[in-house]
């Protein structure tokens, strides 16, 4: 079972998400929180696999809560999916930088919410190719000249190539077609790259691709 925690200050939103997710045979909502502090307490008590976290909440907002989650080694296995009212919410970019595995708009289609929960547990991130590319474009626009710090030293040439394609927003299937390999092989390369670099998920791999200079602004086309 995939264990989910709901963190949103709107009771009706939580109730709607709970009804949808609890109806799935492989998903269980194990708890709810109305603000970021409640979410952190519930996380440590309930140990969910995924947190659906609203960005704007009282007491402690979702961004600050996500930062604490990703900085806590005890919560390293928890995936955070941010919830926002608008796709281009100004905080979404920073949420990905803080370690969120992706984000969803609150009026997303029910099947997309369910798919997203399953996807982040499997190690995928950012959830939508269109959203991925918008976030990458935003990151490219904000990125600075990278420092030569040897971050990518552990990677093979093929792993660097795969990481660059991830940084351009490609899915495993798209990477497989580009490199003329199977999707499973592409997924294996992505997974090994994340392990070697200590990346929590695909979203962080995108950030590292830009911060290391492997992918540079202007490559999106």
From TrEMBL:
Q: What range(s) does the HTH luxR-type domain occupy? A: 148-213
Mark the residues carrying the PTM 4-aspartylphosphate.
54
Q: What SMART domains does the record tag this protein with?
A: HTH_LUXR, REC
Extract the Gene3D superfamilies matched here: 3.40.50.2300
InterPro entries tied to this protein:
CheY-like_superfamily, NreC/VraR/RcsB-like_REC, Sig_transdc_resp-reg_C-effctor, Sig_transdc_resp-reg_receiver, Tscrpt_reg_LuxR_C, WalR-like
Q: What is this protein called?
A: Response regulator transcription factor
UniProt xrefs under PROSITE patterns: HTH_LUXR_2 (PS50043), RESPONSE_REGULATORY (PS50110)
Response regulatory domain mapped to chain residues: 3-121
Sorted keywords for this record are: DNA-binding, Phosphoprotein, Transcription, Transcription regulation
Out of the domains of life, which is the source? Bacteria
Question: Could you tell me which species this protein originates from?
Answer: Streptomyces chrestomyceticus
A Pfam family matched in the record: GerE
């Amino acid at each position: 079972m995939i264990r989910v925690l709901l963190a949103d200050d709107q009771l009706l939103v939580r109730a709607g998400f709970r009804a949808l997710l609890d109806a799935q045979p492989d998903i269980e909502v194990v708890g709810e929180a109305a603000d970021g502090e409640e979410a952190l307490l519930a996380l440590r008590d309930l140990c969910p696999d995924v947190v659906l976290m609203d960005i704007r909440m009282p007491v402690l907002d979702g961004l600050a809560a996500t930062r604490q989650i990703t900085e806590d080694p005890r919560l390293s296995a928890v995936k955070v999916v941010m919830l926002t009212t608008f796709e281009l919410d100004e905080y979404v970019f920073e949420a990905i930088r803080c370690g969120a595995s992706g984000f969803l708009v609150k009026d997303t289609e029910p099947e997309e919410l369910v798919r997203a929960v399953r996807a982040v547990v499997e190690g995928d991130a950012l959830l939508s190719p269109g959203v991925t590319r918008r976030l990458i474009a935003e990151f490219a626009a904000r990125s600075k000249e990278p420092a030569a710090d040897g971050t990518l030293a552990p990677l093979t040439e093929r792993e660097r190539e795969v990481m660059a394609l991830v940084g351009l927003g490609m899915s495993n299937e798209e990477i497989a077609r580009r490199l003329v390999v199977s999707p499973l092989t592409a997924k294996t390369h992505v997974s090994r790259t994340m392990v070697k670099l200590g990346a929590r998920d695909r979203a962080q791999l995108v950030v590292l691709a830009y911060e290391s200079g492997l992918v540079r602004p202007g490559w999106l086309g």
